[in-house]
Structures are given as C-alpha cells and as structure tokens.
Amino acid sequence: LAKTTQPISMDSYEGQEVNITCSHNNIATNDYITWYQQFPSQGPRFIIQGYKTKVTNEVASLFIPADRKSSTLSLPRVSLSDTAVYYCLVGPRTGGGADGLTFGKGTHLIIQP
Amino acid sequence: DSGVTQTPKHLITATGQRVTLRCSPRSGDLSVYWYQQSLDQGLQFLIQYYNGEERAKGNILERFSAQQFPDLHSELNLSSLELGDSALYFCASSVGPETSGYEQYFGPGTRLTVT
Is the peptide bond before B8 cis (omega within 30 degrees of 0)? Predict the structure, then answer.
C-alpha cells in the first residue's frame, strides 16, 4: 500500500500559483497518482491523474519527478473558489483493490482576497 | 452535476435502527463505490461493486452491507446503528472495473445522523 503524506493545510492569495506536494515514498512501479478536490458537503471531484513527468489539463498541472516518490499539484492563478480540500491518491490502474482508494485527510487550501 | 444521484439527502434515525441508502450511477458507468466521511476519520472507502459483483472491499463494518442490482443502482444497508455511524455517505461511479484507473464521479451524498 503506497501511503501518502500531504500538508494538513495551506493558504495563499488570489491570483497566485499554488503548489501542493504529496509524498509517496513507497510508490510501486505500476502505481498512478490521482488528485481530487472537495468542497464542503460535496463529493470529491477528479482533477488530474499522471504516471510520470508532467501532465496538464485546463484546471491544473501535475509534476512528477523521475523517482516518483513525490508529486506536486500546481493550481495557476487561484481564486477564492479554489478554497477546498485536495486529496492525493496513489494506486495501480488495474488489480489494485482498495489500495488506490485511500483518500486520507487531504490538504485544506484556503485562498484569501 | 456529476450525474450520480443519491437518496435520501438527509436521514435522522435512532441508535439500533437500520437504514438503506440508495445510489444511481451515471449513465454507462458499471462501477459503484461507497465512502463514509466523518469529521475525525476523513473520507473512508467502504466497498466497490462492478456490474453487480463485489470488486473491492475497504473499511466496511460487518453491520454494513451493500449490493448492486441488475439495473446498476446500488444500496448500502446500515444496521444496528450507533452514534459513531453519523457521517456523510458518498456514492461514486466510474465506467470500468478497476479501482483507481478510472475517474470517479461522486454523488451529492447522504447525511446520516444517528441520535
């Protein structure tokens, strides 16, 4: 089971770029890294998934170094509406059972005006 | 709107009782997942079904059970309820059978309060 470690909370200001790092020292060769966002009293929402190097979509970028022992979710030019909890999950795409569904406590990101 | 529906939205019941939570996945999705979220435990994976069969099991208590029906909707049954079962229960769905390979779409949740 690839356990993840994230900061409990972070804060930033509107318009800034925010980087949230997740440590996963025991990541396995076939594990993928997935990030979700959750607003209060709502279900999590998929943000991005990657295996190595860099992945970018319209919402965020995901940076994964060569050793894959950590990953960084980058949110460009955040706004107040980006205040949420962000979860990092690590697990295989196939045959992973429950291993890839450990959400943990996540990182509570607070954006200030 | 994720396309996943859950009923009821709120449920208040007494200790010792039994309740059933219902989930309808997005059209075309064959996997259904159940999660429990409480303030002190975070988001905990309970169980996954794929096309009617149990696929993966997480931290689900023996007092809890689930099933997925031929029309792919799923029900989570919670019995002998305790105060500590008070939580938000989320259902999610995805298109494929694998637990983390596919993007999951979460429903709005059912807030269960046990008094």
Answer: yes
Name residues whose C-beta falls within 8 Å of residue A25's C-beta, 6 or more positions apart in sequence: A69
In sequence order, what are the beta bridge partners of B47? B34, B57
Query: Residue A106: its chain B contacts at CB < 8 A?
Result: 42-43
Chain A residue nearest residue B40, CA to CA: A105
Chain pair A-B, CB pairs under 8 angstroms: 79
CB-CB neighbors (< 8 A) of B109 in chain A = 41-43
Q: Is residue A84 over pLDDT 80?
A: yes
The pLDDT value recorded for residue B102 is: 63
Instruction: List, as own/partner pairs, every contact residues A55-64 make where C-beta atoms lie below 8 angstroms and the sequence separation is at least 24, other chains included.
Output: A60/A35, A62/A33, A62/A35, A64/A33
Q: Would the CB atoms of B43 and A103 count as touching at under 8 Å?
A: yes
Residue A101 three-state SS: helix
**What is the DSSP secondary structure assignment for residue B84, as one 8-state letter?**
G
Above 80 in pLDDT, residue B97?
no
